[in-house]
TrEMBL record:
Family under the similarity heading: Belongs to the 'GDXG' lipolytic enzyme family.
Ranges annotated as biased composition (Polar residues): 1-20
The organism's place on the tree of life at top rank: Eukaryota
Region annotated Disordered, chain positions: 1-40
Protein name in the entry: Alpha/beta hydrolase fold-3 domain-containing protein
Pfam families found in the cross-reference section: Abhydrolase_3 (PF07859)
Molecular function as annotated in GO: hydrolase activity
Domain Alpha/beta hydrolase fold-3: from-to ranges: 73-124
Length: 125
């Protein structure tokens, strides 16, 4: 599926700014509640490159007081290095569900997207 021209802004310097419109954004949910079995928090990775990650932790692990270590799963969202974001609803919902079902901590890092950032920029966080 290709991005339509309305999803990108051509800048005077020849660069392109992507305007993601396909999925709604979802904020992190840092406060535990009965309706929210997983808490999530956004953490800056590299401010100069605008990279960050969202961490998901099951509330059962926070409330149990157990010293048991949880597995860590690193989830890279799809999109072929050209579209998507950690905070898009489908990615957030998937990580939230999996953290709860697997009783694991999920880390979902962002990466710089093409065509705004040419490869290998996505790998250089």
């Amino acid at each position: 599926m290709s991005e339509s021209s309305q999803d990108n802004i051509n800048n005077p310097d020849g660069s392109i700014t992507s305007v993601p419109t396909r999925f709604p954004y979802v904020p992190a949910t840092p406060e535990p509640s009965p309706q929210n079995p997983v808490v999530s928090k956004d953490i800056t990775v590299n401010r100069s490159k605008s990279t960050w990650m969202r961490l998901y932790v099951p509330t059962a692990a926070l409330n149990g007081g157990s010293s048991e270590k949880l597995p860590l799963v690193v989830y890279y969202h799809g999109g072929g290095f050209a579209t998507g974001s950690v905070d898009f609803y489908p990615h957030h919902d998937f990580c939230n569900l999996m953290a709860r079902e697997l009783n694991a901590v999920f880390a979902s890092p962002s990466y710089r997207l093409a065509p705004v950032n040419r490869l290998p920029a996505a790998y250089n966080c």
